Amino acid sequence: MQFDNGLPIYLQIVKEMTLRALSGAIEPGGKIPPVRELAAEFGVNPNTMQRAMAEMEREGLVYTERTSGRFLTKEEGVLVEKRKSFAKEETEKYLAYMKKSALPRKKWRLM
User: Fold this and answer.
1) CA-wise closest residue to 67 among 111, 14, 31
2) How many beta carbons lie within 10 A of that of residue 49, not counting itself?
């Protein structure tokens, strides 16, 4: 993964893991790989990955079962709301980019 210097790495990991969850790469209620395994995959320190997982848990996307590990939420409402907020955020970024590009609105349509 290529990291952007403008955003903390753990938040970039949260975004990537959220995309995985929302795309179905991780099933609702599905087990999340261990922190050390994910840290190796992303090429980051396990403490950074732990912080990302803690943030996802705070957001309600992940829950921990004491002896079994972490799992993606089973709560469909949480996933639906996260999809909506993610789509809104990405749309706003796209529109802001298009405004900066100075293209006439007529040319904003997707081809």
Assistant:
1) 31
2) 24
Q: What is the DSSP letter of 64?
A: E
Proportion of the chain in helix, strand, coil states, percent, rounded to 5 = 60, 10, 35
Average pLDDT of span 77-101: 89
Q: Is the pLDDT of residue 87 over 70?
A: yes
Task: State CA 73 to chain mean position distance.
Answer: 14
Pairwise CA distance, residues 21 & 73, whole Å? 9
Q: Please answer whether residues 35 and 50 qualify as being in contact, where contact means their C-beta atoms are separated by less than 8 angstroms.
A: yes
Given a contact cutoff of 8 angstroms between Cβ atoms, the answer to whether 108 and 98 are in contact is: yes
* Residue count (the chain): 111
For 66, the 3-state DSSP assignment is coil
**One-letter amino acid for residue 41 of the chain:** E
